[in-house]
Write a structure and sequence with these properties.
Helix content: 40-55%
Number of domains: 2
Pfam families: Cucumopine_C (PF18631)
Largest sheet: 10 strands, antiparallel
Number of strands: 10
Organism: Yanshouia hominis
Low-confidence stretches: none
Number of helices: 8
Radius of gyration: 20 Å
Shape: globular
Strand content: 15-25%
Protein name: Cucumopine synthase C-terminal helical bundle domain-containing protein
């Protein structure tokens, strides 16, 4: 029998039940189930439309066995995106992209009206109000909630004290950032870093922090984390890949205000320079950095001033409405 979950938006006094797609993506559903319960904040799609999502405080590497085109998917579809930050996605309206999405489940038919309400709030928040909408996702069967400690990342059986200390600091920072905006990011978006930005403005610096944080977490660290699971690659090869890509990101982000991330990355690079890490230790630290930067990226995304895009409305009728195209 497919398992059931509950999505709650306490600030709105709304909730919705859903059934997981255990029959279509069993491993993916199992990873989510084992991570429950958790809290996050809702974001809304700024390109796709019709979808809201939260960054999940976990890393999924499950095989994806079933996908569907999101512009052809039904209202109420739950999806999961591993490659764009590990997001739980809820479709509340029509979507405007023909990309494929991993099916996670389906919201109950009787709760679809709730989704529309929450979706409209999430859309308004991302473009205009910036009102934080928090979400709590849990198992429906309360008696099955794990009473023990939830382990977000897999710790190596053999792990040095230095590696464990760095990983735990990153994980703690990530868990804090799953609930509230990090102070460093708040300083960036409110212009409280003295002198950052030409001509006395700080928007350019803010945009750089948003784009670099996004690309570091989704398109750099997560792919390296996947490569860490490749048995053909050794730790020294993985270290070379990381060292070729990472320093530019973390050094720039540190210069723009994300100083803690830069300092932690420097500690990691010091370990790499000593060539003392095992592959499992390297993987554990990459996972930890990915987890932390994912949580940073959700705030960069949420608070970015997407509302300025309202100056770019389409006025010609031919391009106003999205029309799904079929191949062939």
């Amino acid at each position: 029998m497919n398992r059931r979950i509950l999505l709650e938006w306490p600030g709105l006094g709304l909730s919705a039940h859903a059934t997981l797609a255990d029959d279509q993506n069993p491993e993916l559903c199992n990873e989510l189930w084992n991570a429950l319960p958790f809290d996050s904040i809702m974001n809304n799609a700024v390109v796709t439309d019709g979808s809201m999502y939260c960054w999940a405080p976990l890393l999924s590497f499950a095989p994806i066995r079933y996908k569907e085109r999101i512009d052809l998917a039904p209202i109420g579809r739950l999806r999961y995106s591993q490659n764009t930050g590990n997001k739980v996605i809820v479709q509340y309206g029509a979507c405007n992209e023909d990309i494929m999405g991993a099916v996670l489940g389906q919201i109950d038919k009787e709760d679809l009206s709730v989704l529309k309400q929450v979706g409209e709030e999430a859309r308004t928040a991302i473009f205009m109000s910036k009102k934080e909408i928090h979400v709590h996702i849990s198992r429906c069967c309360k008696e099955s909630e794990s009473a023990g400690e939830r382990h977000v990342l897999e710790k190596p059986a053999v792990c040095s004290e230095a590696v464990e200390r760095l990983a735990q600091e990153l994980i703690s920072l990530a868990e804090e950032a799953s609930l509230r905006e990090p102070e460093e990011h708040k300083r960036v978006r409110t212009g409280r870093n003295s002198g950052m930005g030409s001509c006395g403005q700080y928007f350019s610096t803010w945009e750089f922090v948003y784009s670099l944080t996004r690309d570091l977490s989704m398109y750099t660290l997560y792919p390296i984390a996947r490569l860490c699971r490749d048995e053909q690659l050794g730790v020294r090869q993985l270290e070379r890949v990381y060292m070729e890509i990472d320093p530019t990101y973390t050094n720039l982000l540190g210069s723009y205000g994300m100083k803690r991330l830069r300092e932690l990355a420097r500690v990691f690079r010091g370990m790499i320079a000593e060539k003392i890490l095992t592959k499992d230790e390297f993987r554990y630290l990459i996972d930890s950095f990915t987890f932390y930067t994912n949580m940073l990226a959700q705030w960069s995304y949420f608070y970015y001033p997407w509302g300025i895009g309202c100056a770019c409305f389409r006025f010609d009728e031919e391009h106003q409405t999205y029309v799904p195209e079929t191949e062939g």
